[in-house]
Write a structure and sequence with these properties.
Largest sheet: 6 strands, mixed
Structural class: alpha/beta
Distance between the termini: 27 Å
CATH architecture of the largest domain: Alpha-Beta Barrel
Number of strands: 24
Shape: globular
Oligomer: single chain
CATH topology of the largest domain: TIM Barrel
CATH superfamily of the largest domain: Glycoside hydrolase, family 3, N-terminal domain
Length: 816
């Protein structure tokens, strides 16, 4: 790694501090006199979102056209690391071709609840699957010389009040469930950057959480890259620098730089910490500006890859009487508004302006099917319309089969909001029931970024969950429906029978100051398997047009070996999955099964292959809070192999010599033993945490820097409450829109610090404090302070900008 001591010596204290916050929404600051360029960052977990002109971080302004790949939730269903790396490479090539140095993704937070509003942007509820796929993305992106930025570190599980929510999670669960995927990425793919989460973790903001950023990320995992805040996610710039947070985005003007300078001069910040953060930025500059000759970005090839990825990520949930694949010449009644106006990506900062977007109605002409006609069937605003249903039923009676495009409304899935339920809109189910009465076989094509309840499934012949398939999703859907592609998608998350079955159903999202992870390690399939709750479709499930047999499992200390045979009529892919269960008594709360390995296979009819899945350092480990270390508990384990978590036909026992002997479980944790964690007592949760539960309530007023704006309605000032009424009405209007109003949601739930952090220097910390004074009822004095702070802040910002620009350009000797 390059020695930057000479550059550090040439930088002034002010320049060092200024380098640790952005120049604008997307760029870092540069210092031309020392050859330090600006770096351009861009959103793009499933496609590049590079904006021109007025830029924003919420996906509001239009971006340059780019290939829109399937979202992470869709790609995760492929369980295909090679495919993920190909997508990463294509994303990196596109970024490199447009001068982007940092791609802000992939997202790999664990889907703690099926209601997570941003679940479409994440891979899985399981850390092994999430980590391995994310590592593949990172390898692909960075092979092109572009920095990948895995996000959001850490325990970022809900969107409600995401900038102020405090995730209260015990250390073992944090390590085993919520950090393991990041550990896999850091150790296996060596990312050059990483993004912190908005939320606090156990009382400390992620971007200034030393335990996360120094103790674990850098010292334990060996991360040597740059840590960037999520946009507006930084709180205290001095604490961030001291705790491992490298750079604050977007630009807060020079406010944070001044705070850092003052802290160093007052002895509150060690200059060595400041130098360490600047060195991390300079290291990233070296990496992303190193000479490379990557393959040029090829849009047609990338579009073809997006089509393949969408097909591989589609999951066949039902196929009665082998209705699928549809034979050539089949007469199809294509019904459903989504067939003309597709749901192909989520909303928010990841939104992509696609280079092309064929619909199901457009794309059917590329098949050998006969289109009997198209009917809208339902309104996208979910208002009942009997005429549309009547038209759809009449069309269905003229065809051999109905292909019915259903799915989640756009307003249900977005950055900034969490889902309220898992049901399809009533108008869609009403249409399905009316069509079922015709007796014509119904093939439902589901679109949505996550779990959907399916109490209506018996009305269908087949159900294909396409998730969010990107710009080529329609073509991929017909590929699967017609058998051009044999469906190989396997669920990367559990689909419950009902939301009430989920471990977090009674407390997600948290409306309190804290989000309590009371379920501990019993997340999603771990809860279902451990508590005996049968899901509608288990984790790892997916049907095929062929069949597979598992045989001959043998295990050694190093690996599990078994055979898989394609016993069906056509070639197909299978995901062989390995789970581990503790057989001997254990001193740790353990889920009944945990995924510890998987292999994606492609087999011709009658072909048999021998599979070996190695046991690694993660296979049997648990995090032991008594020793603050990973341990392996000596004893017997059961190795389980099969096509999904609910069907594991092969089993073998293995004695493991561990690092610690079995213990007794703490009696205080006894309520967790049955894994029915939907209603955990305070006493049991405190025993799991190892300390008292933090106070969950907001105690406002008085308001502070990080109090959320949606609580300003409690202000002692009648004038403030009156003004807040306008924001409240805007929020209610936004709730009724068919598409999410991200701007209103962001403002409504943002903390006061957003005035300071998200205005590019227009509102300083002093001005923000004056606004808080007004909210706390001291209106007159607060307005006077606000006017003074705005005037003085504008003057200070202008002077700082000019001073930095002249010194950076070498136009005059920089002030030391």
């Amino acid at each position: 790694m390059t020695d930057h001591s000479h550059t550090l010596a040439e930088l002034t204290l002010f320049e060092k501090a200024a380098l640790l916050s952005g120049a604008n929404v997307w760029e870092t600051r540069g210092i031309p006199r020392l050859g330090i360029p600006r770096l351009w960052m861009s959103d793009g977990p499933h496609g590049l979102r590079k904006q021109r002109g007025d830029a924003d971080h919420l996906g509001l302004g239009e971006s340059d056209p780019a290939v829109c790949f399937p979202t992470a939730a869709t790609v995760a269903n492929s369980w295909d690391e090679e495919l993920a790396e190909e997508i990463g490479t294509a994303l990196g090539q596109d970024a490199a071709s447009r001068g982007v140095h940092m791609l802000l993704g992939p997202g790999l937070n664990i889907k703690r609840s099926p209601l997570g509003g941003r679940n479409f942007e994440y891979f899985s509820e399981d850390p092994e699957l999430s980590g391995r796929l994310a590592a593949a993305y990172v390898r692909g992106i960075q092979s092109t010389g572009v920095a990948a930025t895995p996000k959001h570190f850490a325990a970022n599980s809900q969107e409600l009040r995401r900038l102020v929510s405090d995730s209260i999670v015990d250390e073992r669960t944090l390590r085993e469930v919520y950090l393991t995927a990041f550990e896999i990425v850091v150790r296996d793919a060596r990312p050059w950057a990483l993004m912190t989460a908005y939320n606090l973790v156990n009382g400390t903001y992620s971007h200034e959480n030393r335990h996360l950023l120094i103790d674990i990320l850098r010292d334990e995992w060996g991360f040597d890259g740059l840590v960037v805040s999520d946009w507006g996610g930084a709180d205290d710039p001095v604490a961030s620098v001291a705790s491992g947070g490298t750079i604050e985005m977007p630009s807060p003007g020079f406010d944070s730089a001044h705070a850092i300078v003052e802290a160093v001069r007052a002895g509150r910040l060690d200059p060595a910490d400041l130098d360490a953060r600047v060195d991390e930025l300079l290291t990233l500059v070296d990496r992303v500006t190193a000479p490379r000759d990557p393959d040029p970005f090829d849009e047609p090839r990338a579009n073809a890859l997006a089509r393949r990825a969408a097909a591989e990520g589609a999951v066949l949930l039902r196929n009665e009487n082998a209705t699928l694949p549809l034979a050539a010449g089949t007469s199809v009644a294509l019904i459903g508004a989504f067939a003309e106006r597709p749901r192909y990506q989520g909303a928010g900062s990841s939104i992509v302006n696609p280079t092309r977007l064929p619909t199901l109605r457009d794309a059917i002409v590329q098949t050998q099917l006969t289109l009997a006609g198209f009917a809208e069937g339902f309104r996208l605003d979910d208002l009942p319309d009997d005429a549309l249903i009547t038209e759809a039923v009449a069309l269905a009676r003229t065809a051999d089969v109905v292909v019915l495009a259903l799915g989640l409304p756009a307003a249900d899935e977005s950055e900034g909001i969490d889902r309220r339920h898992l049901a399809l809109p009533a108008v869609q189910v009403q249409l399905l029931r009316a069509l079922a009465e015709t007796g014509i076989p119904i093939v439902v094509v589901l679109a949505g970024g996550g779990a959907i309840e399916t109490p209506w499934i018996e009305l269908t012949a087949s159900v294909l969950h396409t998730y969010l398939g990107g710009q080529a999703g329609a073509l991929a859907t017909w590929d699967v429906l017609t058998g051009v592609v044999n469906p190989g998608g396997r669920l990367a998350e559990t689909l419950p029978v009902a939301l009430a079955d989920d471990a977090t159903a009674r407390r997600f999202p948290s409306d309190h100051r804290t989000a309590e992870y009371r379920e501990g390690p019993f997340v999603r399939y771990r809860h279902h398997a451990s508590a005996g709750v049968t899901p509608a479709f288990p984790f790892g499930f997916g049907l095929s047009y062929t069949s597979f047999a598992y045989e001959d499992l043998s295990v050694t200390e190093e690996f599990a070996r078994f055979t898989v045979t394609n016993t069906g009529p056509v070639e197909g892919s299978e995901v062989a999955q390995l789970y581990v269960r503790r057989s001997s008594p254990s001193g740790f709360l353990r889920p009944a099964i945990e995924l510890k390995g998987f292999v994606k296979l492609q087999l011709a009819p009658g072909e048999q292959t021998t599979v070996e899945i190695p046991f690694g350092e993660r296979t049997f480990r648990v995090y032991d809070v008594e020793t603050s270390a990973w341990q392996v508990e000596t004893g017997e384990y059961e190795i389980l192999v099969g096509p999904h978590s609910g069907d594991l036909p092969l089993a073998a026992n293995l004695d493991v010599e561990g690092t610690i002997a079995p213990r007794q479980i703490d009696p205080a944790l006894e309520p967790y033993v049955t894994a029915d964690v939907r209603d955990v007592s305070d006493a049991a949760f405190e025993a799991l945490l190892g300390h008292p539960i933090p106070a969950p309530e907001w105690h406002v007023p008085p308001y502070g820097y990080n109090s959320p704006l949606d609580l300003v309605g409690r202000s002692p000032s009648r004038l403030v409450r009156f003004a807040f009424g306008f924001l409240e009405r805007a929020k209610r209007a936004a709730d009724g829109l068919p598409h999410p109003d991200i701007t209103t949601l962001f403002i409504y739930y943002a903390p006061f610090r957003a005035f300071n952090k998200m205005t590019g220097g227009a509102v300083t910390r002093e001005a923000t404090d004056a606004v808080i004074t007004i909210a706390n009822g001291r209106v007159g004095g607060g307005f006077v302070a606000l006017v003074r702070a705005l005037v003085s802040g504008r003057q200070r910002e202008r002077a700082s900008r000019e001073r930095f620009a002249r010194a950076a350009a070498g136009q005059r000797p920089p002030a030391r």
